[in-house]
Amino acid sequence: MVTASAPGKVYLFGEHAVVYGEPAVPCAIERRARVTVEERDEGLRVHLDDLTLDGFTIEYSGDATGRPDVNVSESLVEAGVGYINEAVEQARDAADAPDAGFEISVESSIPLGAGIGSSAAVVVGVIKAATAELGIEIDAREVAERAYRVEHTVQDGEASRADTFCSAMGGAVRVEGDDCRRIEGVDTLPFVIGYDGGAGDTGALVAGVRQLRSEYDFAADTVEAVGDIVREGERALQAGDLSELGELMDFNHGLLSALGVSSRSLDGMVWAARDAGALGAKLTGAGGNGCVVALDETDATETALSYTPGCENAFRAALDTEGVRIE
Ligand code: MEV
């Protein structure tokens, strides 16, 4: 039996624009998905536990290819099972063991579909644990590559390498098309996260931006401007200039809002963070519903968010410099 864990992530800058070849800077956070895998004679048995943040438990037990016995939203479970099935296929392929069967248990403290990398962390964890269980050691870059193929398949081609690369490698990373690398020398960032309890529909949100971008030149210019923010932000990150990083996060949120992917609850949390003195705040991930990320070295933002209407949970989640690992 092998257990692997992989971190979730926030986007410091660049979500959505990364889909069109602009750079993005996602950062791994200290919230992990833990995946335990044991080989069995054939087939798959999957247990998904506690896949949301505060005690809302998905009890899933069943054949991953059949109908699960579940007591929660089937679409959430189906999404999770789809990712796990494809991740298992990648592990079988890496180990040249097409018929390998597995018992898989997932525990995660990363809310599903909330913009902080739940599916990528689970996929990365499954690939690492299942290959290790089959006696194969693959490095973090190969895990990232295989995890990207999983997201690409499950999300019908609408996936960048950002989430999976960040979860596999850890730390702050830069992704631009197929060029993915760690940004060295960034050891700590004071992230505070606000979660509205909801989930965004990534496919629909990406499609909405694609439509705007093809309809209006100024929407295409907005996507390019996000790329400019990322390039400027990288310089601020390397210089350790937190106040400039915050200013650029605010700007990035404004452009995401203009592209139609924010919402009342996300805007409300962003403003609550800014009012509390955060250096900057923005939505993270696809948007719609889910999470915002703020930069604050004090406790003020976390406290303010915890009293903000529409914010279900506020927590600190520092940069995690470690990516996927065997536990
Ligand atoms: C979703 O976490 C981030 C998006 O940029 C889509 C992607 O990069 O695959 C919206």
TrEMBL record:
Q: Which reaction does it catalyse?
A: (R)-mevalonate + ATP = (R)-5-phosphomevalonate + ADP + H(+)
Query: Which GO terms of the cellular component aspect does the record hold?
Result: cytosol
Domain (GHMP kinase C-terminal) ranges: 235-300
What is the protein's major site of localization?
cytoplasm
- Which EC number(s) are documented for this chain? 2.7.1.36
What Pfam families does UniProt report for this protein, alphabetically?
A: GalKase_gal_bdg (PF10509), GHMP_kinases_C (PF08544), GHMP_kinases_N (PF00288)
Q: What does the record give as cofactor?
A: Mg(2+)
What is the annotated quaternary arrangement, including any partners? Homodimer.
Q: What is this protein called?
A: Mevalonate kinase
**Per the UniProt entry, what species is this protein from, by scientific name?**
Halomicrobium mukohataei (strain ATCC 700874 / DSM 12286 / JCM 9738 / NCIMB 13541) (Haloarcula mukohataei)
